[in-house]
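We modelled the chain as a single entity of 94 amino acids. Its sequence is:
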Amino acid sequence: MHNRKLITLTAAAALMAGSATAMAQTDNSQTMPSGMSIGEIASALEDKGYTRIDSIDREMDRYEVDATDPNGQRVELTVDARSGEVLRSERDDD
């Protein structure tokens, strides 16, 4: 009888630990925005002719990037984190 209680308690503890792990994984995936990595964003911008990419900062679903555009102008870019599309480009006068 004592062994049966011990097995039941061990099984219950294992199920609870598994549930907690699954919930933590679910919560983590919900808080971590998906999208391209910083390296992938840099490569995508270089493919579009941008150079001197000095700064790439993640802001939720977008990246803020300081770079030189294909015309040689310093710009501040807003880039979609999922697609790599340049959403906004403003001349950087700093």
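As a brief sanity check on the tokenised model: The CA atoms of residues 72 and 85 lie 19 Å apart. DSSP finds two helices and four strands in the chain.
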